């Protein structure tokens, strides 16, 4: 069985709960780093027909496909979603908007061209919105599409985010099943640069099969590789999402989410080396068994510090962190490399 | 070719071996996991292809060989997957990672992929089998069937003091201290009887050199790093002691008995034992023909151990009773062989001169039925069991099935059962099942005067009724053992009617035409052949088997595995085997099983007792 | 009066105690045998009357008390006999040796002789019971019945690392290092898994402070005296480590699980376990009502352990099913409680709204049958067993007998069994035996759509046929647990029809007239009473039991044994008990069993949760 | 059940093999100490109707009762026994005769008065016989009987041997079931002294129930007690004889015969203290499981040395003895005292 088939089999066993197409899959307010300061952000996850890659199988860790709509939304419904989402931002004075779908915002099959223009146009029209970030797979980052977006947005900043995950094609293929190559990303980055659009790369800490150490070093190396091709780097810590292949193996004791100490070390090493880059991480589900975690005592503190660093880009907030479990983590870094195929579990 | 590993001793699937580096390493062995990263260590890992490029990997190989020459087992670069990974991914990666190196090498064993030669195999994802007895069993048997018997099997990230003996029992040669170390850093205190959180303990139940100098309170108050180090040292001490104990048990041949107790620590270990026992092929092929120690039958799993099941199966498949029409079923005795016990002396005295018309078969748990002629033969004379008077339903079911099989195959005109309680229950079950009549001669107590008298009178009454065949206890015994050991037909050949049995019980010797053919070895109740006996079997057209075919040379003392061309697959460690080649004929004791003789490139196959130049004329006489 | 020994913790018959000298001694304890000769030691032997005159003996007593006052357990002068000595000799000597002394004393326990008060009893001739499970069992039970529960029992010259845990499990408080020492001087190396002649070993399987610094070769080459000393030190280390381990296991409440594995080392130890299990009275009376750990059922003896047998007996003796005429028999699940498992969720979903007409009973090994209402109650929610799919004949026999008993006592108009394999075999056995019809609704796989559909349709078909009583899951559950715990009738009283159950499963609370009566403790599946619940039970004319009667005082926090006047003999450690006296009424958790409460002079009898001044008016409302 | 009843029950289960009453139960030649020299000895065990005490139960360690005749021998048969026994002495030039029955030679119920006189007369008549020793229970050592014996023997030396076993009445009663008291022995010794008859006391090392140390010390004390009442002391090392109560307990692991090291120590200590006494010991069955034994390596050597000492009374022959098992024996001395009723087995 291929990795894609394995992922697809699991997908097919999941039920998608029916819900109104008038509302986005999710929307929330948060704060982010922007130009050396903390800025408000409104994140919107549009409910679309879903990621084309995910529908055919998709990535081993991705559970967002289940956020897609059971019946593809009409263009009107998509715009209604934006409207409903913007209510959440009513009280904000000045903010960025991050747009996700369960796939690619720039994919016409998910968001029709006209709808995309309308959505971006509405955001451009809102004075409080100073920047829009949209996520997409690299194949949709073309001259034509970018230009159309820039047209719609006017002088509102525009950034494209791509889930690169890693610069290693080996890992992206055999562990993540992402379906594109590093050169696809760098090509997209070139197109973006040529159009004056900034790039954000999402990386994945600890995909399947990698040891804690391999995972850590892979991100460090990826940031070196990607430094010229992005302005912002956001490191996702792999968590165990429902209905994913990662979950399948995790339930069988064959996967452990990354340690929070690993992201701390990554941030310290990479930021020092690349002070020009904005390097952030938002540990989702930190401290839980399914999320990145240290021990019960320190997971919350360390996770808070990572958040704070992400907003401030100030490495000092990471300096004071310590816990008894850090010795264990160091041992795991040493030994998890030498288990020949089974993770070291807690 | 496995030039770097040799198996020296076996106890079931477990074995003691040697990794042939300049300082040989005794197996079962515990690898200090971190030492795998030392390119000059005895085991050196060339790295993971998840983060190495092909060039970097080759460079690693080169570096290791440069540092230590062929004095390290080089673990080829690998890209590890967990066990439940899809086959395609495994295949893709396997193709990509097609590395080789000179000298001794270790390889990942990946399910579903072709096996290439190596000195050591690492079970991929072994740690994930924790708790999953069925999958682990399947993986072990699969690997053992695919790799050469004289290669070492390494199971990483799984071993603890509690499961070490079981892993070794199942045939694993190498483990590591990953779990022992991680537990130490997790404040977990490991013992052979389970693990404890340091916080939930009140005392340290250990006198090892890590624990002896400190109290639990002192340990708790230490800085984490120091505490972790001491706990790790303790955990590794326990692991090491347990592995040494397992080695001692292999040498003594009684690892099974230990594992039958030890497996109670975790349900999945007990499950492993039970599941492996259902794999009679794998288990029996590794079980020696005989051991000099007692077989302790202290638990329900004792009934399914391969030596016990084999005995029952051979009674069914290989044994033919003497031509005696009257069967007397008797209960077993604690003292072995039964015939020297108090109760059996009385039975025998009661049978008196009519004994020659009677065939005696003993009913016993866990062996089932033991014909008198085989009472000396391992394990009939070697088991010790828990005596409480109560037989559980499984024992009754098992022994009934043995008796039922026996009586279905072997017919008697009269069946007398001089038994009580569970023995009687069993006879009644079988009597009802097969619709055959059984005469019961005991009333309340098998050794009471009344019962013994009844036995005596019943037998003489029957004998008086007609003409009955007589048995010849000494030749019957030798013939039964020959059949048991060499298969049906061997008895006829080695102990024909014209043969003579010399020397008193139990040191019988068989002579034909004044030539000694065979000797009974009382300690195991098995037969040793003389060179004349060997020629007799070898030259017969009616018998084939237990033969090791060798190349055209004349071995001396020991026959090494590389000299073996072919060997009977039925041969077990400890078997008496014929050795035949164009230049030699001989006999000796098998030191490995038949399959291993053929597939091994190292080790002693047969310990020869007699070896002669093949002489075609002589072979014909 | 046993002023010098107190039992602090219990695990079955095993206990942790304290000998109350100025430096208290923790039991189970190992006496260094030679120290018995030290008149100032914690245990001082006043000598043997085989060689002392009465005057010399008295002088010895005087000397010991002079040296150490009351800070030594003085073992009264004794004249020892071996166990098989004739009664008259024992009697004559016993009369002759009628010594007394002040302060803490130890006495020989001699079979057949009257027992006089002491703080410590020494089992006479204990060493001779080695290998004789039946006699040893009888002696232990005899002694325990005759001596006060809070006195220490010392078994001399018997303990080895291999049997220590068993001795402690059976209720022995003190052992010595005689055998460990003698073995050392005999060149015998002891381990918990058996003994080895030093000459037959190849390595030292131990990392204790005696073994760690030397190799076996070095040990062998030492002068005898040095070697004997090191071996003795090792043997004593092993003994000590094993006794500490046993103490840790008592504290954790899982000594039984350890002993079930450890007893495989010597057949007589396995025999001891089996024989003791036949003494249900002795074993059950010491078994706690509930434990927080898992009950590991990994061997056939797990079926006879007292907690398991008690559960089955209470289902038979104390449990009354709700008035529901349709029974659905279901297989157990690995996940506990069953109802949160995958398979049971499906069964429940299939029953749907008809579930209220149906009584669900789960078939399982080793517990037998578990009514749904008791699925939380220890050990129904706490056992973990070996899963191989195979049920042996004894399991089938035992579970069948439980089901048969259940269906003989409790009648249903319709019985549906949604089961496969061994479960079905059991249902068929019982159906045949009792001549009752069982409808089978599963076809091949209990969770297949087809099977579940069949279950659903079968039940709705029956329900459609007539009028059926409905169950009230929450009150049925609380009532069943109350009966299970307090005996038949308690459920009616504590959970009458007018009561209300609040809070979601499994944290139910019973209210009557807005007063809280009882709370379910989900961890053990047992009930805790409020003071109102306590008054309700205590005031009822229809219920008696689980009551501890105290003198005319008002205890606080803990009720000590000397304050107990009487106690229900059915009370077990961990039971919820009513405490009644002329001045107080209360409720708490029993810390010892009822007999012990009455017979002990030291120790906490009840850990009180609520205690009030007895108020006759209040008691009436 | 009383000790005597217990012994008797065992007695009643034994079969006595029928044999000719013309031959003694046993007869053998050996050498003994006599007046500082080694002398030849002819030992005769007469087959009689048996020990009266033994028939009623008797001593816990005594298996000699089974040497008694099934049908009581006639006086003629008894004299025939002597005749047949003397053939064994044919080649001896000068020797002592030791006479045992399975009971008391001086008991008229075993040996009628006339027969006794005839037997002693015949021995007196044999020039080569310089001394006669007869064994008896003390109740038969009366003035009358002794005088009759002296009369019959003329100038041949006469010695009476009594199985005293121990000077402790407690042990003799509760462990051995001997049926007489120490004062019975000393009274007999007084009678003997008054008649100019020398006395030999047989002692028993390690009766039932005693620890190795207690047994050893009991013999040492007994020799002190008996020194005035005997000229020769012979220490029997208890061995496990067929059909005895000792055997009954030994089979059940409740008895261990004495160590040979114990007799070595006894001889060394007592001979030094009582140089005037002849103290001997003949370890019967030494080295076997049923007999006194050390380890397999040294039992024979130590037993030989004890024999040699017994003949020579020269303590130097015991000095050089040593073996690895001596350390074990020392430990046993320490611990066997503290087992509270079970022996320390090998």
TrEMBL record, chains A, D:
Keywords: 4Fe-4S, Iron, Iron-sulfur, Metal-binding, S-adenosyl-L-methionine. SUPFAM superfamilies: Radical SAM enzymes. CDD domains: Radical_SAM. InterPro entries: ELP3 (IPR039661), Elp3/MiaA/NifB-like_rSAM (IPR006638), RaSEA (IPR005909), rSAM (IPR007197), rSAM_sf (IPR058240). Its cofactor is [4Fe-4S] cluster. GO terms for cellular component: cytoplasm. One of its GO terms (biological process) is tRNA wobble base 5-methoxycarbonylmethyl-2-thiouridinylation. One of its GO terms (molecular function) is catalytic activity. Residues 41-269 form the Elp3/MiaA/NifB-like radical SAM core domain. The keyword ATP-binding does not apply. The keyword S-adenosyl-L-methionine applies. This is Radical SAM protein. It comes from Methanococcoides methylutens. The lineage of its organism: Archaea, Methanobacteriati, Methanobacteriota, Stenosarchaea group, Methanomicrobia.
UniProtKB/TrEMBL annotation, chains B, C:
InterPro entries: Archaeosine_synthase_1, ArchSynthase1/Queuine_TRR, DUF5591, PUA, PUA-like_sf, PUA_sf, TGT-like_sf, TGT_C2. One of its GO terms (cellular component) is cytoplasm. SUPFAM superfamilies: Pre-PUA domain, PUA domain-like, tRNA-guanine transglycosylase, Uracil-DNA glycosylase-like. GO terms for molecular function: RNA binding; transferase activity. Keywords: Transferase, tRNA processing. The keyword Lipid metabolism does not apply. One of its GO terms (biological process) is tRNA wobble guanine modification. Residues 546-613 form the PUA domain. It comes from the Archaea. Signal peptide: none annotated. PROSITE patterns: PUA. It holds the Pfam family TGT. Pathway: tRNA modification; archaeosine-tRNA biosynthesis. PANTHER family: ARCHAEOSINE SYNTHASE, QUEUINE TRNA-RIBOSYLTRANSFERASE. Belongs to the archaeosine synthase type 1 family. This is tRNA-ribosyltransferase. It comes from Methanococcoides methylutens.
């Amino acid at each position: 069985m291929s990795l894609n088939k394995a992922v697809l089999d699991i997908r097919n066993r999941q039920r998608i709960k029916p819900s109104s197409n008038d509302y986005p899959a999710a929307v929330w307010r948060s704060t982010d780093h922007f130009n050396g300061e903390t800025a408000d952000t409104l994140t919107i996850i549009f409910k679309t027909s879903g990621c084309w890659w995910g529908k055919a199988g998709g990535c081993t860790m991705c559970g967002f496909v289940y956020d897609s709509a059971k019946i593809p939304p009409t263009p009107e419904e998509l715009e209604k979603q934006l409207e409903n989402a913007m209510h959440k931002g009513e009280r904000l004075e000045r903010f960025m908007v991050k747009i996700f779908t369960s796939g690619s915002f720039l994919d016409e099959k998910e968001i029709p061209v006209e709808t995309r223009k309308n959505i971006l146009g509405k955001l451009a029209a809102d004075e409080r919105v100073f920047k829009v970030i949209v996520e997409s797979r690299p194949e949709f980052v073309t001259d034509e599409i970018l230009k159309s977006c820039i047209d719609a947005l006017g002088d509102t900043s525009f950034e494209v985010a791509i889930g690169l995950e890693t610069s290693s094609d080996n890992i992206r293929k055999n562990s993540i099943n992402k379906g594109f190559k590093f050169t696809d990303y760098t090509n997209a980055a070139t197109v973006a640069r040529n159009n004056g659009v900034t790039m954000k790369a999402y990386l994945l800490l600890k995909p399947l099969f990698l040891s804690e150490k391999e995972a850590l070093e892979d991100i460090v190396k990826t940031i070196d590789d990607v430094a010229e091709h992005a302005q912002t780097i956001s490191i996702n810590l792999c968590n165990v999402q429902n209905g994913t292949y990662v979950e399948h193996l995790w339930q069988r004791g064959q996967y452990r989410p990354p340690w929070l100490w690993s992201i701390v070390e990554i941030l310290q090493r990479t930021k020092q080396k690349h002070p020009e880059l904005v390097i952030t991480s938002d540990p989702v589900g930190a401290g839980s068994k399914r999320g990145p975690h240290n021990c019960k005592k320190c997971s919350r503190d360390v996770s808070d510090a990572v958040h704070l660093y992400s907003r401030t880009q100030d490495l000092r907030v990471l300096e004071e962190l310590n816990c008894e479990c850090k010795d264990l983590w160091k041992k795991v870094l040493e030994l998890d490399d030498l288990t020949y195929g089974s993770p070291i579990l807690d | 070719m496995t030039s770097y590993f040799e198996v020296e001793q076996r106890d079931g699937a477990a074995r003691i071996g040697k990794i042939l580096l300049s300082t040989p390493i005794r197996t079962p062995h515990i690898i200090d996991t971190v030492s795998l990263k030392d390119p000059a260590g005895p085991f050196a890992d060339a790295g993971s292809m998840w983060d190495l490029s092909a060039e970097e990997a080759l460079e690693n190989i080169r570096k290791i060989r440069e540092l230590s020459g062929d004095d390290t087992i080089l673990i080829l670069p690998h890209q590890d997957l967990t066990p439940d990974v899809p086959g395609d991914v495994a295949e893709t990666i396997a193709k990509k990672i097609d590395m080789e190196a000179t000298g001794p090498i270790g390889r990942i064993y990946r399910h579903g992929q072709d096996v290439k030669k190596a000195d050591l195999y690492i079970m991929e994802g072994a740690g994930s089998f924790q708790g999953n007895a069925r999958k682990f069993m399947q993986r072990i048997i699969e690997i053992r069937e695919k790799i050469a018997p004289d290669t070492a099997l390494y199971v990483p990230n799984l071993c603890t003091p509690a499961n070490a003996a079981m892993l070794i029992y199942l045939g694993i040669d190498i483990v590591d201290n990953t779990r022992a170390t991680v537990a130490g850093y997790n404040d977990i205190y490991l013992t052979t009887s389970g693990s404890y959180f340091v916080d939930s303990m009140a005392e340290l139940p250990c006198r090892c050199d890590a624990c002896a100098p400190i109290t639990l309170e002192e340990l708790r108050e230490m800085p984490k790093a120091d505490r972790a180090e001491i706990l790790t040292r303790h955990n590794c001490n326990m692991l090491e002691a347990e592995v040494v104990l397992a080695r001692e048990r292999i040498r003594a041949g009684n690892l099974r008995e230990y594992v039958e107790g030890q497996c109670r620590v975790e349900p999945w270990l007990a499950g492993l034992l039970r599941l492996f026992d259902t794999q009679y092929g794998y288990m029996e092929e590794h079980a020696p023909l005989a051991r000099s120690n007692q077989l302790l039958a202290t638990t329900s799993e004792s009934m399914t151990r391969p030596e016990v099941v084999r005995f029952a199966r051979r009674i069914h498949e290989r044994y033919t009773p003497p031509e005696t029409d009257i069967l007397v079923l008797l209960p077993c005795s604690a003292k072995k062989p039964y015939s020297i016990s108090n109760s059996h002396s009385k039975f025998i005295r009661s049978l008196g001169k009519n004994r020659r018309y009677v065939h005696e078969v003993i009913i016993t748990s866990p062996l089932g039925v033991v014909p008198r002629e085989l009472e000396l033969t391992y394990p009939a004379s070697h088991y010790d069991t828990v005596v409480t008077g109560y037989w559980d339903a499984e024992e009754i079911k098992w022994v009934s099935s043995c008796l039922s099989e026996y009586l279905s195959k072997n017919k008697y005109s009269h069946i007398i059962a001089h038994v009580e309680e569970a023995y009687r229950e069993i006879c009644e079950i079988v009597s009802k099942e097969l619709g055959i009549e059984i005469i019961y001669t005991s009333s309340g107590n098998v050794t009471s005067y009344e019962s013994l008298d009844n036995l005596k009178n019943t037998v003489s009454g029957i004998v008086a009724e007609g003409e009955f065949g007589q048995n010849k206890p000494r030749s019957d015994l030798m013939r039964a053992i020959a059949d048991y050991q060499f298969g049906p037909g061997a008895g006829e050949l080695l102990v024909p009617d014209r043969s003579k049995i010399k020397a008193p019980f139990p040191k019988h010797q068989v002579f034909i035409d004044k030539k000694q053919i065979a000797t009974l070895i009382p300690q195991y109740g098995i037969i040793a052949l003389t060179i004349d006996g060997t020629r007799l079997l070898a030259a017969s057209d009616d018998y084939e088997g237990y033969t090791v075919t060798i190349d055209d040379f004349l071995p001396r003392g020991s026959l090494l595995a590389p000299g073996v061309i072919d060997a009977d697959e039925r041969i077990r460690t400890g078997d008496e085997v014929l050795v035949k080649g164009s230049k030699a004929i001989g006999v000796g004791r098998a030191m490995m099983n038949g399959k291993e003789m053929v597939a091994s490139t190292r080790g002693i196959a047969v310990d020869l007792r007699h070896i002669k130049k093949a002489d075609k004329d002589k072979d014909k006489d």
